[in-house]
Amino acid sequence: MCIRDWASSILARKGITKDRFPIGEPIAITGAKARRHPTRCEISSARLPDGETVTMRSEQGHANIAVNPDTPEKKLIRESIFGLWVRDSFSGAPVRPGFLETITEAGKQANSQYVGSRDDPTRDCRPVNPVRAMFAPGTPTEIRQEQDRIVIQHEFMDTTRIVYLDTPPATEPGEMGSSTGRLENGVLTVETNTFAPGVLLTHVRDSGILHSDQMTLAESFSIDRETGQLIYRWEATDPLYFTGPIGGQLGLSPTLLPISEFDCEPQKTDY
Q1: Which residues pair with 184 in a beta bridge?
Q2: What pLDDT digit, counting tens, does each position of 93-135 carry?
Q3: Burial of 67 (0-12, 13-18, 19+ CB in 10 A)
Q4: CB count, 10 Å around CB of 162?
Q5: Is-contact 165 186, C-beta < 8 A?
């Protein structure tokens, strides 16, 4: 058997609760085996003790955990960036290729100390950075405007991010930084700095891509009129750890899923 930790909010949407797992009853799991641990995997489907089969990832790579609960007959369409969005596919890394070539010697030294299975901040229920929060599949994100600020609320790690359309207040360095935005012609552009040293990309080979406190992040949020998706573009620069920008883009689909409590529990490091 293999084990993969999912947020309780994701499992609850599929009707998976603790009482579905009587002690001693067998569970059949299919999924992709973990590279570093013999009893862990990413679950594609599970046959529960009561005979029901639950699919978490389709053969096409879609996150079935993210389907709309009450899909209308017509395709859900939004005319602005505001509303609820979800990444409904696991496939494809939302980062441009060639980023490993931009890592400086200082960056390589920092990366060499990082072990993903041990040091991933999500193991401590931390959101990592704004990009990682946008990447999370199956967990909705809401974008809304409240007077002079844009609020980006993620179900992932119960994270709420404030983007100030005016001068942001002074803040201590942190994982999510300090963000200033501009909303023009339906496109939100965001500049973020005041990061604490941390992790930009959490799973790269057996390590990750770390950043220093000098990192700045440029982002944009816009609507693709042909697909109806929210297009999220990002680009990180760090003169200490990168010789050039690292960036990419991601498409998120409109959803009717409400934001639930992520209810993360810190994971013990057992390997």
Answers
A1: 187
A2: 789 999 999 999 999 999 999 998 889 999 999 999 999 999 9
A3: middle
A4: 17
A5: no
